[in-house]
Design goal:
This protein has about 270 residues and is α/β, with parallel strands linked by helices. The protein has helices at about 10-20, 30-40, 60-65, 80-85, 110-120, 120-130, 135-150, 155-165, 180-195, 195-210, 225-240, 255-260; strands spanning about 1-5, 25-30, 50-55, 70-75, 210-220, 240-245, 265-274. The protein has a 7-stranded mixed β-sheet, sandwiched between helices. About 45% of the residues lie in helices and about 15% in strands. The radius of gyration is 20 Å and the shape is globular. It has 2 domains: about 1-85 and about 195-274, Vaccinia Virus protein VP39 (Rossmann fold, 3-Layer(aba) Sandwich); about 100-195, DNA polymerase, domain 1 (Orthogonal Bundle), CATH 1.10.150. It has 12 helices and 7 strands.
């Protein structure tokens, strides 16, 4: 199996306990620290474990280098882990003040601070609307540009405060189901890490990599990701490449959400190669 986003190794640990000594888990992640932690977490598995710092868009290239022609199962969990949110160097959280970075892979050149401080107002607004789906994107972009004229925006705390102020209405207290900066932070993270293009590349590679009757499973956390997965599975079904296992996405139960609030938006879709 290939765990395309091995993260903290939780999924691979469960699957690895089922696989025997002839089983192989290939774990990919762009986060060097995640790979280092996972080495320790999976060290007692009897199956073979191969870990590599690699974006899942390069899955075909890396698996080929290992001499593996086909795989039985590919898993991609597209969520951000608690460890990544807490990592000051990642700069992903608006709940704690951190340098405004947002790169999962430090080899990338552009940070969120670069975009926020250099992009023109229209580009910022379009980015927040496209990747964050925030209807107040133009107002948010205007506030960002106004504030950066006074001083550069370099921390997550600064940006969160600016977005929150932009979404306040004079004389009214606006209720938010989520933090007002959530969509803006999502948009910047997607842009910095080129997440949607990488997901498209992964999905396009899967049919050639999977064995007959092999499975592809993807856990997404927002509608932009889920739509890409849904449409890809549907297209492959129409071309008689896949059989869709999940007619509707599997979502967490109330009990699971109560134990892990970050799971509330998760959607799992599974398809099988015909």
């Amino acid at each position: 199996m290939v765990d395309a986003t091995i993260g903290q190794g939780g999924h691979s640990l469960l699957f690895g306990k089922i696989l025997g000594p002839k089983g192989v888990i290939v774990g990919l992640d762009v986060d060097k620290r995640a790979i280092q932690r996972t080495q320790f977490i999976l060290k007692d598995l009897v199956c073979k474990v191969i870990l590599h710092i690699c974006n899942f868009s390069q899955i075909t290239e890396y698996v080929g280098k290992l001499g593996i022609e086909k795989v039985h199962f590919i898993l991609a969990d597209l969520g951000v882990s608690s460890a990544q949110l807490a990592d000051v160097e990642k700069g992903l959280s608006f709940l704690n003040n951190m340098p405004l970075d947002m790169r999962f892979d430090k080899r990338l050149k552009t940070t969120a601070a670069d975009i926020v401080n250099r992009a023109d107002e229209r580009t910022l607004a379009d980015l927040i609307y496209r990747f964050g789906q925030d209807r107040a994107s133009r107002r948010i972009a205007r506030f960002i540009v106004q504030q950066r004229r006074r001083r550069p925006i370099t921390t997550t705390g600064q940006l969160a405060a600016i977005v929150s102020k932009a979404l306040q209405r004079q004389g009214k207290k606006r209720k938010h189901r989520i933090h007002p900066a959530t969509r803006t932070f999502q948009a910047l993270r997607i842009a910095v890490n080129n997440e949607l293009e990488n997901l498209k590349e992964l999905l396009s590679c899967v049919p050639e990599l999977l064995n007959k009757n092999g499975y592809i499973a993807v856990i997404s956390y927002h509608s932009l990701e889920d739509r890409l997965v849904k449409n890809n599975f549907k297209q492959n079904k129409n071309e008689k490449v896949y059989r869709i296992i999940t007619k509707k996405p599997i979502v967490p139960s109330y009990e699971e959400i109560s134990r892990n609030r970050r799971a509330r938006s998760a959607k799992l879709r599974i398809a099988q190669k015909q």
